[in-house]
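quick one
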Amino acid sequence: MDSISDPLQTRWKRLQAKIDNLWGDRRQPRWRNSRFLVGFCASLVTVLLLTTTAWAYTVTVSPAAPRLGDTISVRMQPQQGTTEPPTVTMNGITYPSFPMPNGDFRAMVPTSPLDTPGGYMLQITGAEGAQTLAVELGDRNFNTQWITLPPGQTSLGTDHEFARVAAFKSIVTPDKFWNGPLLRPSQGRVSSAYGNRRYYNGDFAEGYYHRGVDYAAANGSPLVAPAAGHIRLVGRVADGFELHGNTIGIDHGQGVLSIMIHLSRIDVQEGDFVQAGQVIGAIGSTGASTGPHLHWGLYVNGVAVDPVPWRFDGVE
Ligand SMILES: [Zn+2]
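structure w/ zinc ion:
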């Protein structure tokens, strides 16, 4: 975020300097000076040009005051009717946008407890030019858990499951399959919220946060799809999913993915298309799990975001 090198900022600064010069010295009635009038009119033209050529998307960001874990939805309304999707860059990462039914474009910027709260710039780049928009990412408190690991515990997980899960998390497809707020995937009670941070044997785990929501439910109780989508990952303990246990991954489209782990039963196959509310498996305690529960992770463009806004307000 180097605003000095931003050509638009530089233009604004020059324009600002011009305007400051115009109004800086009020001792003389400068409007009687014809050169002043010419300069003033030229400045007005510059302002209009900047308005029509550079600030070409009308941008709406929601939520207006995002906090850590929120998904920042960036809607861009083209003023010149261009149909090429613009991109949104924040904190050095560029996110795609997708067309909405009314001709607007929308990009989703994920945030997580690992982000630093504070001011960020959204850089919008597209057929109608480039523009920047300031966003304030608010801080938020997450619960902290202290975990004591027995000495000599070996780390779980196979290369096979990590590779498959990583490949799943990178999926971004153009069609949008969710519609309205996401459904509760299990009727069990929430036993662990999104975003919890951890200490292991007294040491803070910098890169760790609870990347989903846990629902405690009886072994064999139903798991439903929180939204429609394509089944793009089915992993089983027998195939090496020793950490995640039996796993289902759903592609809801446009970089929005659900992953469900520790299942006792899987009712779907890769390639299936499932509807919101469809039973796709059953809750269990397979993999690294201390009791029957569902872990539901909601990923947006590769980052586990807080599912709560998606469940209750919905992201359209
Ligand atoms: Zn969990």
